[in-house]
Amino acid sequence: MNAPLKLTDRKRQAIIDAAIAEFRASGFEATSMDKIAATAGVSKRTVYNHFPSKDELFAQILHELWNSSAAMAPPPYDPALPLRQQLLDVMKRKMDLLRDDYFLDLARVAIAEAIHSPERAQEMVARLNVKEEAVTTWLRAVQADGKLLKADPVIASQLLQGALKTFAFWPQVTMGQPPLDPAMQEKVVGTTVEMFLAYAG
User: Fold this and answer.
1) Do 199 and 192 meet the contact criterion of CB atoms below 8 Å apart?
2) pLDDT beneath 70: ranges in the chain
3) Name one GO molecular function term (predicted).
4) What is the count of structural domains for the chain?
5) 75 and 132 in one domain?
6) How far apart are CA 169 and CA 9, in angstroms?
7) Degrees, nearest 5: CA angle 61-64-69
């Protein structure tokens, strides 16, 4: 059981949550630290005690986005286990991340800011690209085991993850569509894996 957060930690999280809400509603440039403080229910001084600038607060949001993605890294490939089942597990983990409300909120803020200020999002894009390379690395291990030899690991990784995002990320982030229900999640994951294995297996 997780220990209760200390008051200072709760205030810090309230500030982050308020910043996400305000950045989503108004964008980075139009959001003031005063507004974030009011939404968080804390003083402006408290906000600055935790985050000396709005840029540092935005950097923390990118950091949390990175941590959310890192938490869903696939386990190492195991030559002793069936490939299909392992690939299904890798894609289910990715789907679990894409259906997480907090991750989607973070992604909306980051993507919106990337459109208005690409330079501010360079670190985010670089970090998330590295995280998505975890699937590429996993596929290289599969190939080292003499399987999926027809697939280019980089292209295969993008195809696998892109198929999921087509249904379970971009419609939710850009058009406000609801998350996929469990049956549709399973169908998308299963179809993606079967199509990939039919090509590369």
Assistant:
1) no
2) 1-5, 120-132
3) DNA-binding transcription factor activity
4) 2
5) yes
6) 30
7) 130
